[in-house]
Amino acid sequence: MTLRFHNSLTRRLEPFEPIEPGRVRMYTCGPTVYDRAHVGNFRAFLWEDLLRRYLKWKGFEVDQVMNLTDVDDRTIAAARERGMTLAEVTEPVIGMFVEDWDTLGLEAVEHSPRATEHVGGMIALIQKLLDRGLAYEADGSIYFAIGKFPGYGRLANLDPAELVSAQRAAGDEEYDKDDARDFVLWKGGEREEGDVAVWDSPWGQGRPGWHLECSAMAMEYLGDTLDIHTGGVDNLFPHHTNEIAQSEGATGQTFSNNWLHAAHLLVEGQKMSKSLGNCYTIPELVEKGHQPSSIRYLLLSGHYRSQLNFKFDGLVNAAHAVGRIHEFRRRVQAVEESSTWSEGPLAALAKEARVRFEEAMDNDLNVSDALAAVFNLVREGNHQLDRVPLDAGGVDNVLAFLADFEAVFGVLSLRDREGAGPDEGLVAWAIERLAARDLARANRDFGQADAIRDEMAAKDVVVEDLADVTRLRLGAQTVVVPKPAK
Predict the structure, then answer these.
(1) Cβ(342)–Cβ(397) below 8 Å
(2) How many CA atoms lie within 13 A of 353 on its CB side?
(3) 446 with 439: CB under 8 angstroms?
(4) Whether residue 321 sits in one domain with residue 246
(5) Are residues 103 and 150 in the same domain?
(6) pLDDT at 372
């Protein structure tokens, strides 16, 4: 099977081949740590975690960098408004980010550099651009001259000649430039920022521009050319467009062979906005009673290039979905079989699921089809487990595939950590009420039988009548009860 990604640079689906066989150099635009990250931010981070996990599952060694932007206009503004140092603002926010990262079960990346710790490399990068004639100084600040860089804007499919009115200066409007389209590399001269963020440079005191930070850190850890650069679609222009210009302008090499971008997150059909009060953080969602495994599953359940509508009833459905897979795994684990007995109907189901899962994920991380393969196995596998007598051949194949699924999606371990299933008292009560319902049905008292079923439904106990057994679904747990003898 060939792994393919949609490359934003070429706007087409392309086979993925890393520069170095077996190793992937990947850069991820991380958070700007002026305030706690919200669920929209984590949509992108979780998709990137899925990408990372799938690359590893395919056998690649992944070397990933995710920066922490701890100096930019927003962090500086927050420090000035609160009368704090930059570190006093950013350190607690970084701590909260790590906490939320762990809550949702994201894997640790290999490098998490902070911008403030790499200013020396940024100054060196600016000097290369000056030496190549692609940058210039004006009133103590340094700017990139996009008119001298052929192909500027190709990532976002922009014509540089049309950028004067469209250019989003990303906070550098107050700086003098030779051309309104140019972007700042070093912010110097007289500013109102005080000494919150000031470094010495050959051009005087100042601080690096936001776009420059990512280029310098990416190339310091991963080299001049990356295999994959990821981020949200809002980063296409100007941020990633400017990264390409300054990186390739300095090195003469392709900056990244593949550019992958995630679409925006909507909340209940609306754009996220503080004024609408829908910029939910992870702790706020957990406080509302939603489990981290459900949040993670919902944010991963849509294709990364499609807008995802984050809805609270979607979180409830996500909880049921994770519960179904988790309970199916528990049922399979409970089956005892010989370690040499690897063939049977379950084995065939597991093998088919694995093929369909990999085909889907190889196709630009098509999670919808991948999850469909998982739930087909759950549905058909439960039917096999409900059979009397049970033919359990292939349990080891099923467990191996579920381990593969978990390695990529990472929701079952979160559910394990949360604790699955209702208390034993509810299980005992449900079984007792089921017996009473069956007795009422045997006595042809269907009104009483329906009343008992409604009573069980009021406690979220779902009754499924099968040929030889009755299945009770209690939250994330399933209990199978043999039907009474006739």
Answers:
(1) yes
(2) 27
(3) no
(4) no
(5) yes
(6) 98
Scanning 278-362, the segments in alpha helix (DSSP H) are: 282-287, 292-300, 312-334, 345-362
Per-residue confidence (pLDDT) for residue 253, from 0 to 100: 97
Residue 339, pLDDT score: 42
Answer with the one of 246, 262, 278 that is the final residue of a domain: 262
What SS3 class is residue 309? strand
CB burial of 115-131 (b: ≥16 within 10 Å; e: otherwise) equals bbebbebbbebbbebbe
* Cα–Cα nearest to 449, from 464, 428, 435: 435
**Residues contacting residue 194 through CB under 8 Å, at least 6 positions apart:** 80
Q: What's the CA gap between 18 and 278, in Å, rounded? A: 39
pLDDT of 476 > 60? The answer is no
Q: How confident is the model at residue 216 (pLDDT cuts 50, 70, 90)?
A: very high
> Quick one: CA torsion of 84, 88, 90, 95, rounded to 10 degrees?
-150
Same structural domain for residues 431 and 394?
A: no
Q: Amino acid letter at 289?
A: G
Q: Which domain range does residue 296 map to?
A: 270-418
pLDDT digits (tens, 9 = 90+) for 291-302: 999 999 999 999
Tens of pLDDT, residues 368-391 = 999 999 999 999 999 988 876 677
Same domain for 166 and 292? no
In a domain? residue 171: yes
Split at pLDDT 50, 70, 90, the class of 421 is low
State the total domains in the chain: 3
Rounded CA separation 220/277 (Å): 39
Contact at 8 Å (CB) between 111 and 298?
A: no
Residues 359 and 441 in one domain: no
- Integer Cα distance of 181 and 212 in angstroms: 16
Strands 183-188 and 141-144: antiparallel
Q: Distance between CA 288 and CA 421 in Å, rounded?
A: 19
Indicate whether 41 and 128 sit together in one domain: yes
The answer to the question of residue 152 being in a domain is: yes
Structure tokens at 207: 């601080």
Contact 27, 40 (CB under 8 A): no
How far is the C-alpha of 223 from the C-alpha of 219, rounded, in Å? Answer: 4
Give the whole-number percent of the chain exceeding pLDDT 70: 90
Residue by residue, DSSP assigns 135-189 as: EEEETTEEEE-GGGSTTTTTTTT--GGGHHHH---TT-TTS--SSTT-EEEEEES
Q: Which of 237, 262, 287 is the last residue of a domain?
A: 262
Do residues 224 and 256 make contact, with C-beta atoms less than 8 angstroms apart?
no
The long-range contacts involving 416-420, CB below 8 angstroms and separated by at least 24 positions, are 416/326, 418/291, 418/292, 418/293, 420/323, 420/326, 420/327, 420/330, 420/475, 420/476, 420/477
**What's the confidence (pLDDT) of residue 468?**
66
Q: Which of 14-18, 216-220, 392-396 has the lowest mean pLDDT?
A: 392-396
Clarify whether residues 102 and 147 are in a common domain.
yes
